[in-house]
Amino acid sequence: MSFLVRTKQKFSRLFKGLFKKKQMRIGIYGPPNAGKTTLSNRIVRDWTGDAVGPVSEIPHETRRARRKEGVTISDEGGNSVTIDIVDTPGVTTKIDYKEFLEYGIDSDEAVVRAREATEGVAEAMHWLREDIDGVIYMLDSTQDPFVQVNIMLIGIIESRELPVIIVANKTDLPDASPSRIKSAFPQHPVISISGLEGTNVEELYEKMIEYFG
Amino acid sequence: MKMIQGVQIDLISADRLERLTSLEKVRLILEKVMEGNVVVLEKGLSADEQSLLIETTMREITPDGFAGIEMETYSGGSSESHKGGGLFGGIFGKKESPGRLTVIGPANQMKTLKKDKDLISAWVSSR
Ligand SMILES: Nc1nc2c(ncn2[C@@H]2O[C@H](COP(=O)(O)OP(=O)(O)O)[C@@H](O)[C@H]2O)c(=O)[nH]1
Ligand SMILES: [Mg+2]
Question: FRET partner for A62 with CA separation of 20 to 30 A, picked from A1, A188, B84, B86?
């Protein structure tokens, strides 16, 4: 192998390394059913044409984190950000396989689902400490934001000094109250959207370019 | 041994907690909670310890066995957790303020766990 080739390889590795570094890994966190997968599918579809994973009203449909690499989001002003999107299972401190039985899933399958969900949450928590560079924290704005898991998770994210955008989702529903979320987390930007209908996602994209760029 | 119906409450002093590493704290808490006890910490866990606790809890869950935890705490608050810590606190990892009084119990026995400004109420059933 000639010196030149080796040097070239070294450089391309170096550049790859640099590029990887620049590509922020953005985790979508939040409680089960907040709409994380719906939003990550929308982001990925809007900017690459693919999808990330299945959406479901059954909690913990996303049992293992899914990621989509190299998603470039840009605005009309020519600003852009390239990110890896990590769709995580809902964050929780408890999982009982019997919950799945209520959705007509048989108990063997429920046990498997619960096991996958626990592994997925453990993994998502681990990544938050190890390799996430920014967070989109999703909340269902028809639900009370002042629950311990949310406060705890936001605290964990803050202690890591990660940039975080809070999304108040499901604004299409009549009892949505994004203002309750804004008052719960005044220290962070809160963007109200309907991930399902796509309402106001442009504002979220703008904020992502500003915050994660 | 004849079982007396009831729930054991373990109050762990700030002194004892201070002598333990993060991993030891998490192990101690889970050991007690998995026995069905309610654990009260005089001084809470740091954010990293909380995340380690959730991760370890998830790894201990089994069907028809341990179903996870319920937890309430008075945290240091986000402005406080940054005070004096800043970037270097983040790098050296030790400066962040731990939460205050914390109650942790087994999810399948803690029927309600509510927090007010100055009162945490737990309703716990025996197994
Ligand atoms: N009305 C309404 N429903 C939504 C919205 N986003 C997601 N959902 C629904 O909420 C449920 C959970 O969505 P999913 O994306 O799987 O949530 P995840 O558990 O956080 O990944 C599904 O039934 C979705 O169709 C929204 O903006 N508005
Ligand atoms: Mg999901």
Answer: A188
